[in-house]
């Protein structure tokens, strides 16, 4: 709606068959708009023999990055394998509408994006597993105005028990009064498992306990 003053370059060339072609190139135009997502730009051509200018228009889409992503969920409680966790990822603003997603590690979790006012969010639910321990849960938002996704993350700490316990005895055949060695191994768990020995209901004392690193950041006992 107003004439724009900016650095421009105009060329006039003769056209074969008669007439002239005028070309104008507008450069270094700084777009300043407030609360507008699109603006219409009009090019007007004037000629002494025309009663009024002829024109053509094009629309510029004004892009803006989304706000800081927010990852929400009940992170105050201890996570245990098998429980269901609900989390949401949301952001404010951004044009065009940003893409919002929740990632567990490098896997994108399913969820439908919703929008109310200038807030865009996605909510997802998943079952916690031992393999989730140590993974990053990430809220990621992006749109054409972001050269790289904007993201915020939290590391998951998942408690899980041993999936199995195995035992052995050496030697397997003994006479009364001989000494045997009993071994019991609990699969990876967090926190480490405690092992106790019993024979016919009576506790057996004096066992030595060792630990080593197990799967999913747990401990084998």
TrEMBL record:
Domain Ig-like, first and last residues per copy: 66-157, 162-221
Q: Which SUPFAM superfamilies match?
A: Immunoglobulin
Q: Which GO terms of the cellular component aspect does the record hold?
A: cell-cell junction; plasma membrane
Keyword Oxidoreductase in the entry? The reply is no
State any GO BP term from the record. cell-cell adhesion
| Top-level taxon of origin | Eukaryota
Q: Where in the cell is it found?
A: Membrane
How does it sit in the bilayer? Single-pass type I membrane protein
The record ties this protein, via InterPro entries, to: Cell_adhesion_signaling, Ig-like_dom, Ig-like_dom_sf, Ig-like_fold
Key words, A-Z: Disulfide bond, Glycoprotein, Immunoglobulin domain, Membrane
Chief localisation class: membrane
- An MF annotation (GO) of this entry: cell adhesion molecule binding
Q: What is this protein called?
A: Ig-like domain-containing protein
Organism of origin: Meganyctiphanes norvegica (Northern krill)
